[in-house]
Structure formats: structure tokens, C-alpha cells
Amino acid sequence: MNHILAQTLKEELKRLLAEGEEFLPLDDASLSSLKAIAAKASAQKNAPADAPGQKKSANAHRRQKLYETEDAEAARLPDNLAEIKFVEKLERLAPEAAPAEEKILKVKQNQTNPEAPLPKPQPFILPEGDKNLKWNFLRELVLADPVCNSHVKPGKKVVFGIGNLDAKIFFCGEAPGADEEIQGEPFVGRAGQLLTKIIGAMGLDRSQVYIGNIMNWRPEIERGNRPPTQEEMEYCLPYLKAQIDIVQPEIIVALGMTAVHGLLGFDPTRRLGKIRGKWTKFGERDLMITYHPSFLLQYASAAMKRLVWEDMMAVMERAGIPISQKQRGYYAGAK
Ligand code: URA
Fold first, then answer.
1. What is the pTM of this model?
2. Which pLDDT belongs to residue 333?
3. Which of 58, 76, 220, 231 is deepest in the core (most CB within 10 A)?
């Protein structure tokens, strides 16, 4: 298998993983080719480290850069997780594996908890009063939460939602990344800038919507991001739900699979590709599921952008936001 094919396969795996797929059917020929790649990867891994002054491989250089800049979005994507799990799994496949028609390669997405067990979420009651009073109370509570703070490195911040407390539309993301935990605001890094553009394309700006996350701290692994564990999500969820109760949006937009798992509960059979673009409910509120902007950054095909844009047009229609002919035409014909 040549490099381009291997790269294409890797991209496809990453896409499937991001969509929530966990199984990849493989025929014997593909499996043999993949074993060869795994053997090569393993040989490279065991090769002596670059001598000082020696030029780094392009990939090593890219990774180094990723770590140095702590690029939140690039690191958040299943990229490193997929690669590691993929290669690990391939390395473990015995050469004498049964000659079945199809082998199943499982790419595990939901990690086990790398942290000490978390306490139960702290109970709280919102004060009587208007939305501002409730929101300020909740924000103070979250920013002072000892468990949230214990997951934040010195100089970094717990991140609480932001936006219009009367917003019709509530965007729900996954977790803060490197930029967010520096600024203490959701969606301010590269994915955030893309989300801001999407909101702009809808004829709105950030001050007209509400933006929150499932998590209030950045789930970190080494120097990258990782998906939050179930336990971590459960700890933070009451805070997200309270923000939804305060804002009372008509529509919630779940950005990506973690947001879906957080809002609707974990279900390993769910596939983002199948559920996106369809209306569902979060309690009494309308819920639209779409791809996470980080995913778009990684797979920036016009067809993928069109899918997200169609989801956003459905949101606009339901929110009573007029859609111009020009807007209807964005990425049209890209499917
Ligand atoms: N991705 C998210 O899901 N949330 C953020 O705040 C930033 C990136």
C-alpha cells in the first residue's frame, strides 16, 4: 500500500471516528496491508531518536509544533487518539489471525477515566430573581467550584458559557481548549472563529446567541486535548443544564458527538452522520445536531460545509430568521 493510500485510509478512519463509528470491516487483503503499515510504524517507533542537530521528520516536526503551540482544535480532534489506537490495535493483531471474510478493527473512542474518581456534582439552587441574577450566581458558583479548579493549571481558567440571556439559539460545544482556558471564554480559538463565522453567515453575531460547553475545564492529555470522560461530563452537566434553564432558548444546537452524548446520554450505537440534520428534543426544547467546527476545520470539504450549512438553515427557519437567496446558495451544488 503506498503512502497516499495509507494516508487516505487514515483520514477515512479519523472521519469515521469523529462520526462515532467504532467498527471498520476489513477484508483479508486490506488487513495484510494494514499489518505491514503497523510493522513499519512499530519499527519507526523503536528506531533511535533523532541525533541532536539532525533534521526532524515532517510528522515529528508537525507534532512538535502542535504540542508547542498547543493548538486546541488540531489536538482536540481524534487525530492523535485515532492514530495511537489504530497503530496499537494493528500491532496487536496476531499474524495468524483467523482467515475470516471480514475482520473487525475496533477503534475505541470513549476513554477510561485517567483521573481520580470525581465527587458527585455539588447541589445548588438558583436564587429567585431575573435571568441576570441567576446567571451571575451560577457563573460565580462555577468559577469558584473546587473540582473544576482542581483540573485547571495555574494561570489557566475555568470556562463558563457566554452570550445573550434571551437568545433563541443556544450553541453547545464540548469543552474548552488551550485558547479558551487562557481567555476564560468558550469558542475563541480556531474552532471558535469558525463558529463565529457560521453565526455571522446566519445573519447573527455572537451577542445574539448563547454559547456554552458540556465541560467547564479543558480535558487534557499530555499537551493535547482529549474527549471528556463520562464522569467528567456528569460532573459539569448540571451547570450546562442550569444555563439552558436560565436562557430558555427555543433551539439548542449540539456541536459534535460529545455534545450529543452529554445532552442525550451516552449511546455507543449513535452515529453522528445518521443523526445530524434531524430535529430531536432536549426536554421540551428543539435540538439540532450538527458537526463540530473542529471537524470542519479538519475536513473542510465544500460538501461537509454544505451539510452544516443546511443544518443551520433548518435552525434559522425554526427560529424565524429570514433566509435570503444568497444564503440558500452557500456551498450549493457541493454534495
Ligand atoms: N471546542 C469546544 O467544544 N468548545 C470550545 O469552547 C472550544 C472548542
1. 0.71
2. 81
3. 76
Crossing angle (nearest 10°) for helices 302-319 and 190-201: 50
Q: 185: CA distance to ligand 1 center in Å?
A: 9
Let me know the angle formed at the C-alpha of 13 by 7 and 17, rounded to the nearest 5 degrees.
145
Of 213, 218, 220, 263, which is best to mutate to test ligand 1, by the most ligand atoms within 8 angstroms of its C-beta?
Answer: 213
Report which of 307, 292, 296, 286 is spatially closest to residue 170, judged by C-alpha positions: 286
Grid cell in block for residue 135:
446567571
Residue 270 CA to ligand 1 center (angstroms) comes to 21
Ligand 1 centroid to residue 215 C-alpha, Å: 9
- 180 in ligand 1 pocket by Cβ < 6 Å? yes
Using the predicted structure, report yes or no on whether residue 17 has a pLDDT greater than 70: no
Are residues 195 and 305 in contact, defined by beta-carbon separation less than 8 angstroms?
A: no
Residues 6+ apart with CB under 8 A from 38: 87, 90, 91, 93
